[in-house]
TrEMBL record:
The keyword Nucleotide-binding does not apply. Gene3D superfamilies: 3.40.630.30. PROSITE patterns: GNAT. Residues 14-175 form the N-acetyltransferase domain. It holds the Pfam family Acetyltransf_3. It comes from Winogradskyella flava. This is GNAT family N-acetyltransferase. GO terms for molecular function: acyltransferase activity, transferring groups other than amino-acyl groups. Keywords: Transferase.
Length: 176
């Protein structure tokens, strides 16, 4: 049985809620930052309309099927959208993976750690997951450090579907 939670998660400083098409202008901005293009890849999303289509095609079906997917991270004190953090189920993988991206001005402030840590708890408690993976490029040292701080262990080299890039594959059991 699949658990379909789809809720807003709160932390000390953040709201973590599923992405909607109303987030298209923000997603467009985020997807076109230099680090997104360098480390995640250019998805050729250049308009708000294309961002809305991307959200519908990539996020909604997974959210409906599993209850989890991509989330927008929002600061509680001023409702500013900072980035995204999500759990992603890929058809050819046993365990979902966690991923995150933040606008440059909100990096290195602990937001990615805070959001990711809470999503890891939700992965176990709300979605019944027992393990997670994560993938990043070797030269993405910020993501590597964050994953290690979150308790992920480097497992080896991996690839994601429809992507030839050689990625570092991290893994974590949710045994807390």
């Amino acid at each position: 049985m699949t658990v379909k939670v789809k809720k807003t998660i709160k932390t000390q400083r953040l709201y973590i809620r599923p992405v909607t098409t109303n987030d298209a202008p923000f997603i467009l901005e985020l997807m076109n930052t230099p680090k997104w293009i360098q480390f995640i890849g250019d998805r050729n999303v250049k308009t708000v309309e294309e961002a809305a289509i991307y959200i519908k095609e990539k996020a909604f079906s997974q959210l409906e099927k599993y209850g989890y997917g991509n989330n927008v991270i929002i600061k509680k004190d001023d409702n500013v959208k900072l980035g995204t953090c999500g759990l992603y189920h890929r058809d050819d993988r046993e365990d979902p993976d966690i991923g995150f991206a933040f606008l440059p001005e909100y990096e290195r402030k602990g937001y990615a750690f805070e959001a990711s840590q809470q999503l890891i708890v939700a992965a176990k408690e709300d979605y019944g997951l027992s393990e997670l993976s994560a993938y990043t490029l070797e030269d993405n040292t910020s993501s590597r450090k964050l994953l290690e701080r979150l308790g992920f262990i480097l497992k080896g080299i991996g690839h994601l579907p429809n992507n030839d890039a050689e990625l570092l594959h991290y893994h974590r059991f949710l045994d807390f």
